[in-house]
Design brief:
Blueprint lengths: L16 E5 L4 H11 L6 E5 L5 E5 L7 E5 L6 H17 L4 E6 L18 H12 L3 E5 L14 E4 L2 H11 L5 E5 L5 H11 L2 E9 L5 E7 L6 E9 L3 H12 L4 E9 L3 H9 L2 E7 L13 E4 L2 H12 L12
Parallel strand pairs: 1-4, 4-5, 5-6, 6-7, 8-9, 8-11, 11-12, 12-13, 13-14
Antiparallel strand pairs: 2-3, 9-10
Length: 327
């Protein structure tokens, strides 16, 4: 099969390949299927009056290689239940292999037992996916890469870095750029980007006052007269990003941008961004936007082609190692 929409020539055949979309991020799933050179397969998803979910796969998938795309965001409990039901339906319809494609892995931040009598929710989700009948998982920029160890089935962990690096190299003068982590936990990721771009690196020490309030304490690095790019994995209220940006400006930064993989922006976060010195927010389309960003400079980079390449390589039993950076 010839390369399609930028997909490499190693794509191979798409015989028996079926891609289904959950309801949470349908537009991304639709574009993934298009980039993979197939049409989305039909599935009926109904919410009953009592809020139970009903799923029915429209066509025969006996012996098919099934990929189900669902981001577990916005309403993660509903999203996961819908995904579990789709997986179970595919298993009972005799699919040959079922891969859960999860651009945003909900509950990833609950990845350890950090206080008494609490669950490890990220691990429980992994077990539920396996129990439902998933044979494989493709996910994207986990909050903690160690979550892969919660699974007893193969997990392919894609990264935003190939897409984001291409954009930064194309649009910014990297010779005057400093990559910044907004906290100590993100230094490893910031260091990766700094090495790839050949730039300096810095990080902000922060104190979290509450779930949505953050106080930046200090900055380590050099941003005087430089353009700064803050790298983070996710944001919703933008407290960490905006506190870090204010600190960078106080230390003489020429400009500040932010790049976030999963942007679950709410109105509070958007209002903060508008009042902050951040001149551009760069995000992926792993989650759909839930607020109006028309009057703020948000650049959305699609990861559909990255997922399409992964799906085609898995379908044709080819290595996908080059598609992602192991953190």
């Amino acid at each position: 099969m010839a390369a399609t929409n930028g997909i490499d020539s190693q794509a191979g055949a798409t015989k028996n390949l079926k891609i289904f979309a959950g309801s949470i991020n349908y537009s991304l799933a639709e574009q993934i299927a298009k980039d993979a050179g197939v049409s989305l397969s039909d599935v009926e998803i109904i919410r009953f009056p009592d809020n139970e979910t009903f799923v029915k796969i429209a066509d025969s998938i006996r012996g098919a290689d099934v990929f189900i795309v669902q981001s577990a965001c916005k309403q993660p409990n509903e999203a996961y239940m819908e995904l579990f039901l789709m997986i179970d339906a595919a298993r009972r319809a005799s699919a040959d292999r079922i891969t859960a494609v999860i651009p945003y892995y909900g509950y990833a931040r609950q990845d350890r037992k950090d206080q008494p009598r609490v669950p490890i929710s990220a691990a429980l989700v992994a077990k539920l996916l396996e129990a439902a009948g998933a044979n494989r998982v493709v996910t994207f920029h986990l909050h903690a890469a160690q979550i892969q160890g919660y699974f007893d089935i193969p997990v392919d962990h894609l990264e935003f870095s190939p897409v984001l690096l291409a954009y930064l190299r194309k649009t910014l003068d990297v010779s005057n750029l400093t990559v910044v982590s907004p906290d100590t936990g993100g230094v490893k990721a910031a260091n990766f980007y700094a090495k790839e771009l050949g730039t300096g690196i810095g990080f902000v020490a922060k104190e979290r006052c509450s779930g949505s309030e953050v106080k930046a304490l200090n900055f380590i690095g050099d941003v005087k007269g430089k353009d700064a790019i803050i790298i983070d994995d996710m944001t919703s209220t933008c407290g960490t990003l905006c506190a870090a940006a204010e600190t960078l400006m106080q230390h003489g930064a020429k400009s500040v941008r932010a790049a976030v993989t999963h942007a679950m922006l709410n109105e509070k976060g958007l209002a903060r961004l508008k009042q902050s010195p951040i001149k551009e927010l760069i995000v992926s389309d792993s989650v759909p936007m839930s607020c109006d960003i028309s009057d703020y400079p948000v650049t959305v980079l699609s990861v559909s082609e990255l997922f399409a390449k992964a799906i085609l390589r898995i379908h044709n039993n080819q290595s996908i190692n080059e598609l992602f950076h192991h953190s």
